[in-house]
Amino acid sequence: MFAQANKKFVAKAPPPPTSLGKQLFPSSSPTCTSDIRDQFKKPNATGHATQSARSGREAGSMQDGDRPSAHKGANHQTLAALYSNANNAFSHSKNEVVDLTGSDSHFKGKAEVMLLEDDFSDDEDLDLDFEAPSALPTMPKKAQAETKENMPPPPTPTQPMEWSSSPASHWVPPQQAHELERTDTREKSMKRNSSEEDNSFGLPAPKKRVLPWAKDEDSFSVKTPTHSSRKDFLDPSASAIKEQKLKLKNQRQPQISEPGNDGARGATETANGGAKTTAFSLSKEQRNVLDMVVNKGQSVFFTGAAGTGKSVLMRAIIEELKKKYAKDTERVAVTASTGLAACNIGGITLHSFSGIGLGKEEPTQLIKKIRRNPKAKNRWLKVKCLIIDEISMVDGELFDKLSQIGRTIRNNGRPWGGIQLIITGDFFQLPPVPDGENKRDIKFCFEASTWNTSIDHTIGLTEVFRQRDPQFANMLNEMRLGEISAETERAFRALSRPLSFDDGVDMAQLYPTRNQVETSNATRLRALPGEARRYEALDSGDPKIRDKLLSNMMSPKTLDLKVGAQVMLIKNWNESLVNGTLGKVIAFSDEKTFEMNGVDDFDSNMDDAMAKARRKLKGFSRDSDTDSSASSGQILPVVQFIDIDGNPKIILCQPEDWKVELPNGEVQAKRSQLPLILAWALSIHKAQGQTLERVTVDLGKVFEKGQAYVALSRATSQQGLQVKNFHKSKIMAHPRVCAFYRKLYSVDVASSRMAPAAPKVADVFASRKEAYRGPKQLPPQDEMDPDEEAMRDMGYY
Ligand SMILES: Nc1ncnc2c1ncn2[C@@H]1O[C@H](COP(=O)(O)OP(=O)(O)OP(=O)(O)O)[C@@H](O)[C@H]1O
Hints:
Blueprint: H1 2-12, H2 36-40, H3 56-60, H4 69-75, H5 79-82, H6 93-96, H7 141-150, H8 177-189, H9 199-202, H10 212-215, E1 221-223, H11 230-234, H12 238-251, E2 279-281, H13 284-294, E3 300-303, H14 310-324, E4 332-336, H15 339-344, E5 348-349, H16 350-354, H17 363-371, H18 374-382, E6 385-389, H19 396-409, E7 420-424, H20 451-454, E8 457-460, H21 470-481, H22 486-494, E9 508-511, H23 514-527, E10 533-536, E11 538-541, H24 543-550, E12 558-561, E13 566-569, E14 582-589, H25 591-597, H26 608-615, E15 636-642, E16 648-652, E17 656-661, E18 667-673, E19 676-678, E20 681-683, H27 684-687, E21 695-698, H28 707-712, E22 721-724, H29 735-754, E23 762-763, H30 768-773, H31 786-793
Parallel strand pairs: 3-7, 3-8, 4-5, 4-6, 6-7, 9-20, 9-21, 21-22
Antiparallel strand pairs: 1-2, 8-23, 10-12, 11-18, 13-14, 13-19, 14-15, 15-16, 17-18
Helix pairs in contact: 13-14, 17-19
Bound molecules: adenosine-5'-triphosphate.
């Protein structure tokens, strides 16, 4: 079917439209081939665009409208346009449907995964410090009845669920255009309306809220912070946001209400102590998702290839939601599948949030467990928005269990008890950890019985920011899909050449297992002359759970360094020195000596030109009032980093803080440590989510589906990537994941044909609930649920 469709496309495709409003789903390519069908077709030799590579950050600092038109056009094609020929036909799409619930004989989940059990068992003891309300909220009866009655039978679930099974509504033929318009109006008002969910408890009428950037779309920007506000920028936690708000209030800055200037992202760069404002904007598709989540309160799953800005978007969403619910921070829960991923976004694991421990028991048992733990129960009752990052590693069974727990604990029959879900990840990346005990095949979240009813919108981010070289982005895209053309294979094999750089910073080598990483780094460190300096982390928090929580952190408990050691920065310093930047320890110094001498004195091998360049880069020291170690005379490492533009930058590294916080802002554990790790070698697991300028990947040792893709897609360019032992057989995409994304594509085709004004982002499920509920009509007055009545009274329809 895809082959057929592609032939038709080649023959009949109209010229690409320029509107961003029509995005493809889900494409990872920034070239003109950014079409889901291209992701699933075998690329031909001429398929690669020849557009020259360009620095991602250079582009990133531009406003959307400033981007070169070739690139822009490349990302703005649409399935709607490409498939406007009726031949291609939604009527055939039924035949394309893939049974998500079927087992796949090709897949055998392997048990060899690097994750620790700790990643999933942090702290069922995580507690809040308030009591559970004595009376649970109740759901309006009509709403319950309506939900049950109107739901069609679910697609065959893999296990019986009480309610809320997945409707295969994306199978349903597209609705007429006018229905879509009505859908849009009504979506504002009812159905899940997750963010208003708790309103049903006391039911004040929902407010119509317009965010500033909704008025001026281009004005929302993500900015690197001022030197003094950098700490807050690095720390997306609730307490940091509170601190920042207080600071801003005290300073009475007039721009506090300006989008992009408040919250945790102030502006600036730091060279020579000057204040140069540098910023990049969220793309339009990122802003649309942000709006959908924050303004419209929709439950969304946004996905996309590696480097499409999912993490950047998620951080912006977290920040905005925390501002929205600043009065009651427990309304927003930030979670991720693993401890490491959770730390990266200032959250806790999904297991920790839910208070289910390992979560192996049946839902009824888990519910009892939560009810015995009033603080865990309160988390469930209080939360309005649940963020889940790296969803690809969450088990589908767990997703169903949590959905049922949410319904029961919150006494609310809607999916997850009415909690708004904000989920991101890429199922082509690392899969869930197989369950060693039950030996059952892994189940992805999209295979969960409750997945479809839990998500209002599935959105594909299509613009790749990490790799600006379209040929490289295409190669990675083929790899993502597990379909490598002969040309791409040749190109990857050509990347086996050795690379060396004359700035002394080597490539980071990615390994699949932690042991390999530790052995490699220790050997390299031992081989360096001189004594190692040891930096012990300063940990605080509840001793009962602290160590367990902190063991998930990227930042090590103990860090041994020598002059010559290769290190990686694990926090964003400014726009050009970011998480993932590689560097080399060139000296040790206290801050005063460093400031007095200047950076030049720390490198005797520098030639004149380099010295001249570096003189401009002096002054990377932090505000002494924000850092107790600044005046302590502590001997700290002086590191020469190679920034994202390839320029050397020397900084004196000082300790940073990492926190594990509950949604109420209570700090469970805190670590203060240098923001460095040894980086001759890194694990693929730790590299997930990172952007690396120089990296060597040995595919000989890769064992898991998605692993090779995760490893290679960390690289920003072919020039900074060495690939050893490339073999097609190592490139494995999970067939059920392929089927899932194909199905999204066919839905996108269907919905794009029905829309007079195509959605701003490739939102493939936006209309599915409406589609399967039949033609859109206002419910008769006596059948309206309280939410609908309230919305009607507010004049929404
Ligand atoms: N709107 C944007 N403008 C410019 N650069 C961006 C934008 N969004 C993201 N980036 C940059 O693109 C790179 C990749 O972003 P990010 O890590 O968020 O992608 P991702 O989709 O989460 O990737 P992965 O799935 O591999 O973790 C980062 O260097 C980030 O700074």
